[in-house]
Write a structure and sequence with these properties.
Layout: E1 8-19, E2 22-33, E3 37-41, H1 48-55, E4 68-71, H2 79-82, E5 86-89, H3 103-109, H4 125-137, H5 153-165, E6 171-175, H6 183-198, E7 202-207, E8 219-224, E9 227-233, H7 234-237, H8 240-247, E10 253-256, E11 259-262
Parallel strand pairs: 3-7, 3-8, 5-6, 6-7
Antiparallel strand pairs: 1-2, 1-4, 8-9, 10-11
Helix pairs in contact: 3-5, 4-5, 5-6
């Protein structure tokens, strides 16, 4: 069944999330529109990744009468159906078979949220064409027959993003996209993500690196100790004073070609 596209991607009201015995998200109130480009910024352990996992239904809110969590206009989702509307890229490969699979196969497997192409999966020519298109967008077609385990970290990240884009999701969710990448790979990744953003795909990017925030990202959400402490235009929030308060250190800033850098 086709889902009518909602103008509102996410609405959270009074959302708290526990992991084990600890509450790691506290009373989150957040609305994100479909197609919006957002960066979630904060120090390690502040709850950024848990927020992404809550959006993807890997973590569930604590039920209270005041709590509301709606994705694409719905409060309840079959997770397999939700995945057809989201593209998710994490720092980890999707499964133990991924390193010994060819790049093309891993991208096609994104249709099934699988780590590789298993014998029981029915692959259509349309799926293969979409995989080629997603790899071309990431400038990764030369990796089609290369084993993922033999790729550089930057090449693997391109394949994982193509895998997330293969079904043309409404929103791309990224958790620390530049981790483990060298300077050249970081630049190539950001250039590729700018193409994705400019084509209209929404992006929610979790990071603690200012340089990950693309020029196309015009909204920043700052998190600290499991709470949203600021939410607004990046021009207002990316300041030395705000970052000093967020990270607890003195920060100097410079801006070049739409990117911010700190030291």
């Amino acid at each position: 069944m086709l889902l009518e596209r909602s103008s509102e991607f996410l609405r959270m009201q009074q959302v708290s999330v526990a992991r084990g015995d600890a509450i790691v998200l506290h009373n989150i109130n957040l609305t994100i529109a479909s197609g919006e480009h957002v960066a979630i910024l904060g120090p390690n352990g502040c709850g950024k990744s848990t927020l992404i996992k809550t959006i993807t239904c890997e973590c569930y809110p604590i039920f209270t009468p005041e709590m509301q969590c709606r994705l694409l206009g719905r409060e309840r989702w079959d997770v397999s159906q939700l995945r057809s509307h989201l593209g998710v890229v994490s720092a980890d490969l999707p499964g133990e078979r991924t390193p010994v699979s060819k790049g093309r196969d891993v991208v096609v497997a994104g249709f099934f949220s699988a780590s590789t192409i298993w014998p029981n999966l029915h692959i259509t020519e349309e799926m293969r064409a979409s995989a080629h298109e997603a790899m071309a967008l990431m400038e990764a077609t030369h990796l089609a027959d290369k084993l993922v385990g033999e790729m550089s970290a930057g090449e693997q990240r391109r394949i994982m993003i193509a895998r997330a884009l293969v079904h043309k999701p409404e929103m791309l969710l990224m958790d620390e996209p530049s981790n483990a990448l060298d300077i050249a790979a970081q630049r190539e990744l950001r250039d590729a993500l700018r193409v994705v953003a400019q084509q209209g795909t929404g992006i929610i990017m979790v990071t603690h690196h200012l340089a990950d925030i693309l020029p196309e990202i015009n909204r920043v959400i700052m998190m600290q100790s499991g709470r949203i402490v600021a939410d607004g235009p990046r021009q207002q929030l990316i300041t030395a004073a705000r970052l000093r308060e967020l990270f607890g250190v003195e920060v100097a800033l410079t801006e070049r070609d739409g990117y911010w850098h700190s030291w």
